[in-house]
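Recall the central idea of this unit: under ordinary conditions, the amino acid sequence of a chain determines the structure it adopts. In this exercise we apply that idea directly, starting from the sequence alone.
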Amino acid sequence: MKRFLLAVALMGSLSTFAQTQSDLLKHYEDFYYQMRMQGDVDGIINALTHLHVLAPSQARLDTLAYIYADDNRHMQALNTIGIEKKATDSDLAVQVKAISLKAINQPKRALEHFEVLYQRNPNAYLAYELADLKIQTGDNTGALTNIEYGIANAKDDMKYAFYERQQPYEVPLKAAFLHLKGLVQFNTDKENIDAAVAFMDEALAIEPNFNLAGLSKQALLSRKEKAAEENKEE
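Accordingly, the structure predicted from this sequence is:
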């Protein structure tokens, strides 16, 4: 009799637990949708974290990491899904790893994830990211390959955002690629500054308010003037 009562009690507790977990899932699902409607990022993160604990899901974890990254909380994003390159990663997970590693100044690690994205879906925007990171890591030949692809595939309505000024601004993607091409030209032949400046001029012809290209041109011309002065002194 005691065993029967114990079994009944156990079944009852399991039923209650299942019902409680189901109720909690429903609660946090409703909470998640409400936070999305209100645009409350912290609320969304809270809801997704609870939902993942109650019912673990890689898709939910990827979404949570994306929300962290989109809110510029890149370390939290990476702590959520890791930094390892995995063949099973979703496109969203790879994107988060690439963007967040770039944001925390890990260009070599970011590069391998951008390469995966590019292999899955080659496009001009990803080509720009690859070229930029390859310049940073010293692969000028690889960067030039991505730049040429980007210039050939950049449409007139494609824009790229820059943040070196207090006020962010956008320029045509083709102009952004020409700026990178000028950097590659200088990196591969530092004596031929005029060739690098010519690419900056092309970029500025497309977008006269391209601040970064203007700064790069100014730096190149200053270097040329300094070299000329040093030659005179000799």
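Residues 2-38 form the longest helix (37 residues).
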